[in-house]
Give the backbone structure.
Amino acid sequence: MTAEITPLIAGNWKMNGTTAALGEVQKLAGLLAAGGGPRCTVVICPPATLLERLNELAAPAGIVSGGQDCHTATSGAHTGDISAQMLADAGAQYVIVGHSERRTNHGETDALVQQKAVAAHAAGLVPIICVGETEAERDAGNAVSIVIGQLERSVPDDWSGHEVVIAYEPVWAIGTGRTPTAADIVEMHDAIRGQLEGRFGARGSSTRILYGGSMKPSNASEILRIGNVNGGLVGGASLLANDFHAIISAV
Ligand code: PGA
């Protein structure tokens, strides 16, 4: 990892978790406290229904929360959607935008993802902007160009005064137990860093670039050791306190 950047480990619970799941947060808080607190930024993105109650348990342990998506508007006739303001009002500090499940299941485009990132900033949230290639795109040798294209179109041009986090998540690695080789992660994260630095200068050098896709206790330290990997976006393994704690401890 890059020494001067504070790493970030984010848990994406997806559509998992009712009140009972808060027991895992309590357990994680205890594990972190016993170890003297986390040495990195720890974010949990639960279903929005749990945000406020999760914050009560998580905040004393130095864990912050985030949403999993937001609308581009602050309010209005958008049944079933949630705005960045609402997430902030519920105590969130981050929001995932452009996750591949949103891109696939809801037809989200890079342009929409960029608008969501702008809405997140307007609400004082840090967007975690997700990019990643499909297996067919990787097999065709296009992984880097696809991801760099997504990055160019999904990250707002102007985010001075704000922060963005990038999450590289190969679509074929999400929830499958498969991960890219270390060499492939190096190549992709270096390419992302290069694009960010070329476009945003020093801010691009300090932007956190997370790896996501089947990160688990058994592979976390190898992945987190890679130069331009500044943390992880963790799905399945963030649901259990012991597993998530092991990944946080691998930083
Ligand atoms: P996974 O999910 O860790 O379960 O592969 C990662 C993600 O979708 O963010």
In short: The pocket of 2-phosphoglycolic acid is lined by residues 12, 169, 174-175, 212-215, 233-237 (CB under 6 Å). The longest strand covers residues 126-131. The chain has a mean pLDDT of 97. Strands lie at 8-12, 41-45, 63-67, 94-97, 126-131, 165-168, 208-212, 231-234.
